[in-house]
């Protein structure tokens, strides 16, 4: 009789993407790394590039490196990201952080949509996005109001309620394409079409989608998008984010944080701001060259693997994990808090448990599994299909079983750490 472990080995042997695992640093071969991809693994190519950036480009070439590739990094890396997002190369640029990009695009959209005052989001959106929107409402002081549509089960996006809330007063809808806790995946095309029918604009946060789930911005006629690069893109801790503006909207929207990198002729040093044509006017200050450049190797790996192959493997692995949950973990009190339907799910699975925080600590400290935790009880397991193996998935499920059956979690208190 085939054991679970033998089955996992067989699935790995048949995996057409298995070769990519060796392209990443794996300093602890026995560590099962499923951290919800708040930080992806380090590509070997990034480590080599980091040396070249400091030793040669900075150390030897000095200021000359700005004219040898640094100045155009935001467009070049953005153009490659666009290929992962179903967008044109001149519709994506790398700049700032996800929050700053959200601020810039949301303010620009609201000013463009004068006369409309309602902003819609849902209670599954990443809280930081909501905080930014709340701050914008207060700052603009123009009668806008933010409305948060509630999910009935905390797992699935409240699509029907969102669509029912649309009217001629809605200016902007802001949603996470893949929800950060449950992994619920919105139907971007259908939701965008409904929002457009009401005359509103939509801004998608792609942070938990890019590099792991299908994104077709042009096919969906999406207006605006933002996202980070340190999760499935493996761009490194605190790596700059990206923003997308559909080509026809670019001349209509104005960057509210105008700065010299978005100026038409920045080195003329005139005192009158004139926005650069195209998407570059959404740049503000000098880009963080070292961290921006280190995004590129991770993007290149994803393009080499292809999003279709990555998505297919992600679905196979998440289906495998759900099957293991059903057999091994559900009887021990673990609850599936992600959608069952593959087409409604990104690349992470959340399993809830009454002892979720303590189990999470046991996994990290005793059982060599590194997931993350999202309140109130979610153990979030991020599957990065470019390097996660089926053996990783099985081992994580087995260790979660042990954590409860052997009461290993009981060694730990309920006191939360600062970073979860």
Task: Write the topology of this structure.
Layout: H1 4-13, E1 32-33, H2 44-58, H3 73-85, E2 92-94, H4 98-112, E3 118-122, H5 127-140, E4 145-149, H6 159-164, E5 170-176, H7 188-197, E6 201-205, E7 224-227, E8 242-245, H8 289-293, H9 296-305, H10 307-329, E9 335-336, E10 348-352, H11 356-365, E11 369-370, E12 372-374, E13 378-382, H12 390-405
Parallel strand pairs: 1-11, 3-4, 3-5, 5-6, 6-7
Antiparallel strand pairs: 2-8, 7-8, 9-10, 10-13, 12-13
Helix pairs in contact: 1-12, 3-9, 4-5, 10-12
Describe the overall structure.
The protein is α/β, with parallel strands linked by helices and 420 residues long. It has helices spanning 4-13, 44-58, 73-85, 98-112, 127-140, 159-164, 188-197, 289-293, 296-305, 307-329, 356-365, 390-405; strands at 32-33, 92-94, 118-122, 145-149, 170-176, 201-205, 224-227, 242-245, 335-336, 348-352, 369-370, 372-374, 378-382. The mean pLDDT is 96. Helix content is 35%, strand content 12%. Helix 1 (4-13) packs antiparallel against helix 12 (390-405), helix 3 packs parallel to helix 9 (296-305) and helix 10 (307-329) packs parallel to helix 12. A seven-stranded mixed β-sheet has the order 2-8-7-6-5-3-4, sandwiched between helices. Strands 9-10-13-12 form a four-stranded antiparallel β-sheet. The two termini are 39 Å apart. It folds into two domains: 4-30 and 306-411, Aspartate Aminotransferase, domain 1 (Alpha-Beta Complex), CATH 3.90.1150; 48-303, Type I PLP-dependent aspartate aminotransferase-like (Major domain) (Aspartate Aminotransferase, domain 2, 3-Layer(aba) Sandwich).
């Amino acid at each position: 009789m085939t054991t679970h472990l033998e089955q996992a080995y067989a699935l790995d042997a048949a995996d057409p993407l298995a070769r990519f695992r060796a392209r990443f640093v794996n300093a602890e071969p026995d560590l099962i790394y499923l951290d919800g991809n708040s930080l992806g693994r380090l590509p070997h190519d990034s480590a080599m590039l980091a040396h070249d950036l400091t030793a040669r480009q900075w150390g030897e070439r000095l200021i000359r490196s700005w004219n040898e590739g640094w100045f155009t990094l935001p467009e070049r890396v953005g153009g490659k990201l666009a290929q992962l997002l179903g967008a044109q190369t001149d519709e994506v640029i790398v700049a700032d952080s996800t929050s700053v990009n959200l601020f810039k695009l949301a303010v620009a959209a609201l000013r463009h949509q004068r006369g409309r005052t309602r902003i819609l989001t849902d209670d599954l959106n990443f809280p930081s996005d909501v905080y930014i929107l709340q701050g914008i409402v207060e700052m603009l002081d123009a009668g806008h109001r933010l409305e948060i549509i509630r999910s009935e089960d905390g797992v699935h996006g409240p699509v029907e309620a969102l669509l029912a809330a649309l009217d001629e007063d809605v200016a902007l809808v802001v949603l996470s394409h893949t929800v950060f806790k449950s992994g619920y995946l919105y139907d971007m095309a259908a939701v965008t079409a409904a929002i457009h029918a009401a005359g509103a604009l939509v801004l998608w946060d792609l942070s938990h989608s890019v590099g792991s789930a299908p994104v077709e911005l042009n096919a969906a006629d999406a207006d605006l998008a933002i996202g980070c690069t340190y999760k499935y893109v493996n761009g490194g801790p605190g790596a700059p984010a990206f923003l997308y503006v559909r080509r026809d909207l670019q001349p209509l929207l104005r960057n509210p944080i105008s700065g010299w990198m978005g100026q038409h002729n920045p080195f003329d040093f005139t005192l009158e701001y004139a926005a650069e044509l195209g998407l570059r006017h959404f740049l503000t200050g000098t880009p963080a060259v070292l961290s921006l450049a280190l995004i590129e190797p991770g993007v290149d790996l994803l393009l080499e693997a292809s999003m279709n192959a990555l998505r297919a493997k992600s679905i196979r692995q998440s289906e495998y994990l759900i099957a293991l949950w059903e057999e091994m973990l559900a009887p021990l009190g673990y609850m599936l808090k992600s959608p069952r339907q593959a087409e409604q799910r990104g690349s992470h699975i959340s399993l809830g448990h009454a002892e979720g925080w303590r189990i999470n600590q046991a996994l990290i400290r005793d059982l060599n599994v590194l997931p993350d935790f999202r309140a109130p009880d979610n153990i979030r397991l991020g599957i990065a299909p470019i390097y996660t193996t089926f053996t990783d998935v099985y081992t994580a499920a087995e260790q979660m079983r042990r954590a409860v059956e052997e009461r290993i979690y009981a060694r730990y208190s309920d006191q939360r750490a600062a970073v979860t």
